[in-house]
Design brief:
This protein has 8 helices and no strands. By secondary structure, the chain is mainly α. It is globular and about 45 Å long.
Length: 157
């Protein structure tokens, strides 16, 4: 099992292609592979800086899959966190992750939109997701629905 198995997984690739297609004309932040890897790398740095003992593979897996439910959200109105946790469980199972690892990662995906204030996997993904957004240089900033406290207005990583 490895996050390299995830990026080769057919369901992951297909779903990411669907997200790319559905976001083709989106003026706001997109949720493609570049964003997912930015979140993964930043989350891993956060874990190292804060001495949080979560394996790199688990952090990367959660980061790569945290927005995988976006296509379902766009097409059906389902919360992308809920849809993503279900899709991620299938992908993680296909990639050989244990039941315990799948539970940890899917819980992080379910709660990656909330800042729990704890050093949990979900809080690391939440922080990295926000810190990787270049709101300070966004051309759509004036139309963005994010509150100013969620926008990333500085460069940290």
């Amino acid at each position: 099992m490895s996050y390299n198995d995830i990026i080769k997984n057919k369901k992951f690739i297909y779903t990411l292609q669907s997200i790319d297609r559905l976001e083709q004309d989106r003026q706001f932040c997109k949720h493609g592979l570049s964003h997912l890897f930015d979140v993964a790398r930043t989350a891993y740095i956060i874990s190292l800086e804060n001495n949080i003992n979560i394996a790199k593979d688990i952090i990367y897996a959660a980061a790569l899959l945290h927005d995988i439910g976006r296509a379902e959200e766009y097409e059906k109105g389902t919360s992308h966190s809920e849809a993503g946790a279900k899709i991620a469980a299938c992908i993680l199972n296909d990639c050989g992750y244990t039941d315990e690892e799948i539970k940890l990662i899917t819980q992080a995906i379910l709660f990656h939109r909330e800042d729990s204030g704890k050093n949990s996997l979900g809080s690391i993904i939440y922080a990295a997701d926000k810190l990787t957004r270049p709101c300070f240089a966004c051309v759509a900033a004036k139309d963005c629905k994010w509150s100013s406290d969620k926008k990333n207005l500085t460069m940290r990583y």
